[in-house]
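Design request, tokens follow.
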């Protein structure tokens, strides 16, 4: 499958088992991505860079210094194992679906593809799913090939069970901060970020302040962004017993203004903190969403990479 032969999310959701879906998404994304050179600290030499305070002295190239009377540091192809935590928002609001695929399904498929890719790169990947405070779902990060089967099995169970509860990803992110306090990690969150107290956004910013690498897939249904309803309509809250009957035309303008304010605030706050942000509609091809994440990752500066 090439990027000109994209499969829409609804078609993909009906395609076989979760591992098959994950592989299809990854293959579609990688077909549009040229491999980028990643620098870290390992055994395979890549190139030089000028020395700056904080660089390790053992990496200074003394031969280059002898030739040019300037200090240069050798950079190396990254070999150190990365630890990746995937956080799936399985709260009730993620069940919303104006079409054939819910936000939960889209988020789960996106993270499943990322898990597949991480294991292919022989890095560690773990999963935390949040939503119902009575159900704790966690798969510790490992790098074994059979670990992918275990992780995707749990992911599939969460997606099949469906979203419930009103717990935001904030508690899961706090848990990760404790688990990864000794070593930086890459944390990828898939959520609609509907959190009245902004706890999730604050937790994401705090993780970034602790020097973790943080990416957000902001999953929204297209109807949540366009509010295309007409005629007297009864709206039900997915996380509370609240419901109301309104004429959409009387509130559409205010709703759209508030949604735009919400998106602007979230995007601006996360960008200011150095968090990679990706807005993904559930009508957007999944491989396009994954490709956007991979391209953003490839452009990160060495200092931003988790190690």
């Amino acid at each position: 499958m090439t990027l000109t032969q994209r499969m829409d999310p609804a078609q993909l959701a009906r395609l076989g088992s979760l591992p098959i879906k994950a592989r299809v998404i990854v293959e579609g994304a990688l077909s549009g991505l040229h491999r980028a050179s990643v620098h870290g600290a390992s055994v395979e030499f890549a190139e030089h860079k000028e020395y700056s305070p904080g660089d390790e002295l053992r990496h200074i190239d003394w031969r280059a210094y002898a030739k040019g009377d300037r200090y240069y540091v050798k950079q190396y192809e990254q070999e150190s194992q990365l630890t990746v935590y995937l956080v799936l928002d399985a709260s009730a609001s993620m069940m919303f679906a104006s079409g054939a695929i819910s936000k939960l399904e889209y988020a789960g498929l996106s993270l499943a593809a990322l898990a597949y890719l991480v294991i292919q790169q022989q890095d560690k990947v773990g999963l935390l799913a949040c939503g119902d405070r009575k159900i704790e779902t966690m798969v510790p990060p490992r790098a074994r090939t059979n670990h992918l089967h275990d992780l995707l099995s749990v992911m599939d169970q969460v997606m099949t069970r469906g979203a419930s509860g009103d717990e935001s990803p904030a508690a899961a992110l706090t848990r990760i901060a404790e688990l990864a306090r000794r070593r930086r990690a890459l944390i990828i969150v898939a959520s609609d970020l509907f959190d009245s107290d902004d706890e999730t956004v604050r937790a994401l910013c705090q993780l970034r302040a602790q020097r973790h690498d943080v990416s957000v897939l902001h999953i929204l249904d297209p109807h949540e962004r366009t509010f295309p309803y007409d005629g007297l309509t009864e709206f039900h809250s997915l996380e509370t017993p609240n419901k109301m009957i309104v004429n959409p035309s009387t509130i559409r303008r205010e709703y759209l203004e508030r949604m735009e304010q919400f998106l602007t605030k979230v995007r601006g706050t996360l960008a200011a903190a150095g968090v990679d942000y990706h807005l993904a509609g559930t009508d957007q091809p999944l491989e396009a969403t994954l490709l956007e994440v991979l391209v953003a990752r490839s452009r990160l500066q060495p200092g931003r990479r988790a190690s």
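Comment from the thread starter after seeing the answer: thanks! The chain is about 40% helix and 20% strand.
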